[in-house]
């Protein structure tokens, strides 16, 4: 306490006029941004309803029984020690005119600039028969936590010989390769624990991230066990019946022993309340500053933003957060930020020792990010198993390193 | 003085003042995989604080497909010589 008071006293001039930035959302994007803004010398408040954060990367490994859920939990102690004011309340409104974020208890937090990193909300109005109550029977498990555990328990309880059905929404949604990694790791679980079972992957798309790599791996690791049904073969789920565990498509019904419904998504609620999302449910931004195209003074990063070529991933959110923090700090000094470049790297596990990756480099182009031509792409299709094992190792290293960068 | 020596000399002068400078395009993304704190027991090598000339040489070799890689060959192709030099100077000045 004495130390904190002393350090406050040695910076009276800064404290007097120091600009205030509020960050809403303490995930990979928000926590990274809050920390970077604080390191830039700003007065930063992070508003996050939950006391701890449960990471989504590697939650598919939890579902498959390869990792404990608690290994995905991270706290905000390091951010506090660096001087970020962390407030564990829901942000319920944004008063744009008076520049205040309203908290659940009615208090207002003033800001000079606001960063929203609210992640996603599941849309419980988009798939007939699927709402918050239906998700208690047919888990989405697309936000890590209780839903992850629910799906894992359902798989544990399933008899050998059962049918697992996973449904995948149309683009855009959080973590483009995530459903295919999940199907792979559930298939691994079934192959090793319940080999008479089957997995059907009902897909609202005909093409997907790392497709050829996934399909080649499925053919070699899970033949006859994992069946991918693309849009053109009737994969789009049009309705669900939670009580009957039945998923309907235009081509027929699928009765499941365990069903994982990944529904359509949209930007987290506070983005919609603040008026920074458009009719698509996502948030248009200036890709140089991440400032909203709809509400000046409010920046949107991570899954909630419309990123164009850059995917909705934890890696991208972390990279966007750092660029956004520099832009916000610059704008508060009346400096025009330079055009950034961003990198994304994303690993998927097809089996515990079989990893594949996709990478990209992105530049601002109009209101979106575009791929830098000639860069990026996936792991080679013909790589030996030693390369797959190395990429599985890199996936684990990546998770340890990025979570330390954000929360450590 | 060769071009390489010139770059090194320029970096040696520039580096000390760059630790708190704005990250050049692409540079702040690196810490998503490469630990700034140099964590033990990870296969992904630390790069922050390493000599800029080594980072430049590695990035050029990755870009040319002359150095074994998993993702760095795909990433290096997204950057020009000038961008690589700026990134290397900044990364080298961190920590």
From TrEMBL, chain A:
Supply the InterPro entries for this chain.
Answer: FAD/NAD-bd_sf, FAD/NAD-binding_dom, FAD/NAD-linked_Rdtase_dimer_sf, FCSD_central, FlavoCytC_S_DH_flav-bd, FlavoCytC_S_DH_flav-bd_sf, SQRD
One of this protein's Pfam families, by short name? Pyr_redox_2
List, for all copies, the residue spans of the domain called Sulfide dehydrogenase [flavocytochrome c] flavoprotein chain central.
Answer: 148-263
User: What domain of life does the UniProt record list for this protein's source?
Assistant: Bacteria
Residue ranges constituting the FAD/NAD(P)-binding domain according to the UniProt record: 20-135
**Example of a GO MF term:** flavin adenine dinucleotide binding
Keyword Flavoprotein: yes or no? Answer: yes
Does the entry feature the keyword Oxidoreductase, yes or no?
no
UniProt keywords (A-Z) are: FAD, Flavoprotein
Pinpoint the Flavocytochrome c sulphide dehydrogenase flavin-binding domain residues: 339-407
Q: What is this protein called?
A: Flavocytochrome c:sulfide dehydrogenase
To which species is this protein native?
uncultured Acetobacteraceae bacterium
